[in-house]
TrEMBL record, chain A:
Domain of life, source organism: Bacteria
Matches recorded under Gene3D superfamilies: 3.30.465.10, CO dehydrogenase flavoprotein, C-terminal domain (3.30.390.50)
Domain FAD-binding PCMH-type residue range list: 1-196
Protein keywords: FAD, Flavoprotein, Oxidoreductase
Lineage: Bacteria, Pseudomonadati, Pseudomonadota, Alphaproteobacteria, Hyphomicrobiales
Keyword Oxidoreductase carried by entry: yes
Protein name as it appears in the record: FAD binding domain-containing protein
SMART domains referenced in this protein's UniProt entry, alphabetically: CO_deh_flav_C
TrEMBL record, chain B:
Organism name: Bradyrhizobium campsiandrae
Keyword Oxidoreductase: yes
PANTHER family: OXIDOREDUCTASE WITH IRON-SULFUR SUBUNIT (PTHR44379), XANTHINE DEHYDROGENASE IRON-SULFUR-BINDING SUBUNIT XDHC-RELATED (PTHR44379:SF8)
PROSITE patterns assigned: 2FE2S_FER_1, 2FE2S_FER_2
Domain 2Fe-2S ferredoxin-type: 4-80
Domain of life of the organism encoding this protein: Bacteria
Keywords: 2Fe-2S, Iron, Iron-sulfur, Metal-binding, Oxidoreductase
The keyword Repeat appears for this protein: no
Name this polypeptide is given: (2Fe-2S)-binding protein
């Protein structure tokens, strides 16, 4: 079925068009939207596009990093100043998907996708959105909790603070097929260290709930401690708390619960 | 619903077509331009046989909204041969038995070309990574990897 495609020069015009039409869908890289259209998804009658340069901007020189919503994973991989995001970017799709898929689209990608968003959740990113009401910044956690209700808002950019060191940010995606494959589970940890102790631990999990979630019990087990074997063991055994994984073709909920602690332990202890 | 005019460069030649809203680039290439080299495998991004290059970057044509290539350059397997001669990658695929049914071959060749354009002497792991979005259901991957490495190693002359 043919759909109407509306292309706008500015993000604000596109946001206006999105907020006024319930059946409109924004086109990022299109890797999921076009899939839906190819399948004959009749809930989409209008496609909204924005050709605003601001959406493709990367600001990565300072301590605060901002990625326009239309920035692709291939561009992140080409940016040396974004090396802390290379592991999550590289873990997505094959080369063509990385050339097409965007950071903004990843925020909406359902399980088993949304790997990059797991990294952004651990990094406590801020999402800049524009709706009919104007633009505002939302914490990524709040954004994800209300994701189903975000239809009609345009994501403009995502920003986060650069981790203090390479060890302070870790990422691990468990897939059955390598180098490309959907996530069985995805984990990311931000472990800022202050005076030899963890201060402000954030652990994020993908495919362990309907959206990416924080493993708060594991975070509590790490907080204020040094990253030693006992602390790691305590965090790993708390990893399933608050999770609600599902069965899918890549793994059962039971399997996910069994392995999440194992992989969190490996992530925290720096094992391959 | 009215048709949308669309102009872009197809293997170096300017083309102009009319598409329905929501048409993907694979359909536009095959049904409106008559270039049958990009194949339809899944329409889901999963198989890679529809791979083309847009402004020199590997893209999946089935997941590309046709209108987004306005004013851009699209290269397909059809543009790969050099006059009457096969491209070195095509020769290497033939010499190394890298195609059995051949359905995956257009995508494999585009993915390989995208790699070699950027990195003329890739490692085996880089070749594997480069074709990781392309599924082959019958040759098996080894002859394909070897064919690409043969070109990279310069054993197949241009
Ligand atoms: C073969 C294949 C393999 C894949 N592998 C992975 C993988 O390993 N890991 C992974 O995480 N994902 C994977 N994906 C899923 C997808 O490619 C990525 O999640 C990608 O980041 C989605 O981005 P997009 O720009 O293509 O999204 P689109 O398809 O353009 O959009 C997806 C959704 O987000 C909305 N949206 C997009 N941008 C915005 C915006 N700026 N504001 C508001 N709404 C917006 C759209 O309206 C739509 O609902 C894969 C997809 C395919 C086809
Ligand atoms: S047809 Fe495009 S990836 Fe399969
Ligand atoms: S040669 Fe048959 S699918 Fe690859």
């Amino acid at each position: 079925m043919a759909v109407t495609v509306k292309t706008f020069a500015s993000a604000s015009e596109a946001a206006g068009a999105l907020s006024s039409d319930r059946s409109a869908r924004y086109l990022g890289g299109g890797t999921l939207v076009m899939r839906a259209l190819n399948e004959g998804d009749v809930s989409i009658s209008t496609i909204v596009r924005a050709q605003d340069q601001a959406l493709t901007r990367i600001e990565a020189s300072g301590p605060r990093v901002t990625l326009g919503a239309s920035v692709t994973f291939a561009r992140i991989l080409a940016e040396r100043d974004l090396s802390f995001l290379h592991a999550p970017a590289r873990s997505i799709g094959g080369p063509a998907v990385r050339n097409m898929g965007t950071v903004g689209g990843n925020l909406f990608a359902p399980n088993p996708y949304g790997d990059f968003t797991v990294a952004l959740l651990a990094l406590d990113a801020t999402v800049a959105v524009q709706g009919g009401f104007g633009s505002r910044d939302i914490g990524i956690e709040e954004f994800l909790q209300a994701r189903d209700r975000q239809a009609g808002t345009l994501v403009l950019s995502i920003s986060c603070t650069r981790p203090a060191s390479v060890e302070a940010f870790r990422y691990r995606k468990i897939a059955r097929i390598k180098p490309k494959g959907g996530s069985v589970i995805t984990l990311a940890a931000h472990l800022p260290i202050s005076g030899g102790r963890i201060a402000g631990a954030r652990i994020a999990l993908g495919s362990m709930a309907p959206t990416q979630i924080r493993a708060r019990a594991a975070e509590r087990a790490l907080e204020g401690r040094s990253l030693d074997a006992a602390t790691i063991a305590a965090a790993a055994s708390a990893a399933t708390e608050g999770t609600s994984p599902s069965d899918n073709a890549l793994g059962s909920a039971w399997y996910r619960r069994e392995i999440v602690g194992v992989h969190l332990r490996r992530l925290l202890s720096g094992q391959e | 619903m009215s048709k949308i005019p669309l102009q872009f460069r197809h293997n170096g030649r300017e083309v102009a077509i009319f598409v329905d809203g929501g048409t993907n680039l694979l359909v536009a290439l095959r049904e409106l331009i008559g270039d049958m080299t990009p194949k339809f495998g899944c329409g889901q991004g999963g198989c890679g046989t529809c791979s083309v290059m847009i402004d020199g970057e590997l893209h999946l044509s089935c997941l590309t909204l046709a209108e987004t290539v306005t004013g851009r350059s699209v290269e397909t397997l059809d543009g790969m041969k050099q006059g009457p001669n096969l491209h070195p990658l095509q020769r290497a695929f033939a010499d190394n038995f890298a195609a059995q049914c051949g359905y995956c071959t257009p995508g494999m060749l585009m993915a390989a070309k995208a790699l070699l354009d950027r990195n003329p002497s890739p490692s085996r792991d880089e070749v594997i990574e480069a074709i990781s979005g392309n599924i082959c259901r019958c040759t098996g991957y080894e002859p394909i990897i070897n064919a690409i490495l043969a070109v990279a190693g310069g054993r197949v002359s241009a």
